[in-house]
Amino acid sequence: MTDLSPFPITARWPAQHPDRIQLYSYPTPNGVKISIALEELGLPYEAHKVTLSDADVKSDAFLSLNPNNKIPAIIDPDGPDGAPLPLFESGAILVYLAEKTGKLMGETPAQKYEVLQWLMFQMGGVGPMFGQLGFFHAFKGSEIEDPRPRDRYITEARRLLSVIEKRLDGRDWIAGEFSIADIALAPWLATIEKFYKAGEVTGIRNLPNVQAYIERFEARPAVQKGWNTPARD
Predict the structure, then answer these.
(1) What is the C-alpha separation between 74 and 202, in angstroms, rounded?
(2) DSSP assignment letter at 80
(3) Domains of the chain and CATH, by start
(4) Which residue in 42, 99, 108, 127 has its CB near the most CB atoms, within 10 A?
(5) Which residues contact 59 (CB under 8 A, 6 or more apart)?
């Protein structure tokens, strides 16, 4: 049996199945990327709920795995060369899991880089911009009277959505076949309406390709399970 005791995080979130991938996460758009990927790939894993409270993400235990105090993070007991591998940053984890299994990242070098460019599009653009949109539209930032921050992120969200709408014209998935790029992107698109209640201001309801894309994504059984892993309560 794999010994994960050298990882301090396991003292606070003990591994009941140390031979499985240990997932430390919460069901946010970034968090569900990894639970959905693990479900899609059929990899055995054990999910640990790490809330967004400082008591969890800024605890010494969690910081020992991710010094940037953000979910998700994993420990793969069967990492490269058979040694346990700790890993944080959702994009890096997605690439690692795809390469580990040889799935969801294209079958040729050209396809791989097409997937990676759209993954980077999500990581560098959609995630940060939509996150700020949520803060200024739905959360504490909405209390700020100055409209400029909110308007900036609404405008940028609309621009990014127009890029996605155009890209999806005639395509089911963002990089051709279903891939980790979709697993990274689609949860953020669904979040605009589901959690941020920003469907009207962003115009996402008027984008038929994006709407159909979200529906296709959410219809997948692995997505339905991953959306709620780990459970909020």
Answers:
(1) 33
(2) G
(3) 9-103 (3.40.30.10), 109-222 (1.20.1050.10)
(4) 127
(5) 12
Residue type at 9 in one-letter notation? I
pLDDT digit string, tens, across residues 123-168: 999 999 999 999 898 877 778 888 898 899 999 999 999 999 999 9
Alpha helices in the chain (DSSP H): 9-12, 29-41, 54-57, 60-63, 90-101, 109-121, 127-137, 148-167, 180-194, 199-202, 208-218, 221-226
Distance in angstroms between the alpha carbons of the first and the last residue of the chain: 30
In SS3 terms, 104-150 reads as CCCCCHHHHHHHHHHHHHHHHHHHHHHHHHHHHHCCHHHHCCCCHHH
- 3 state SS of 47: strand
Instruction: Compute the distance between CA of residue 34 and CA of residue 72 in angstroms, rounded to an integer.
Output: 7
Amino acid at 204: I
* pTM of the predicted model over 0.90: yes
Angstrom distance (rounded) from CA 96 to CA 113: 14
The span from the CA of 37 to the CA of 32, in Å, is 8
Instruction: Tell me how long the chain is.
Output: 233
What is the distance between the alpha carbons of residues 7 and 62, in angstroms, rounded to a whole number? 10
Partners of 173 in the β-ladder? 176
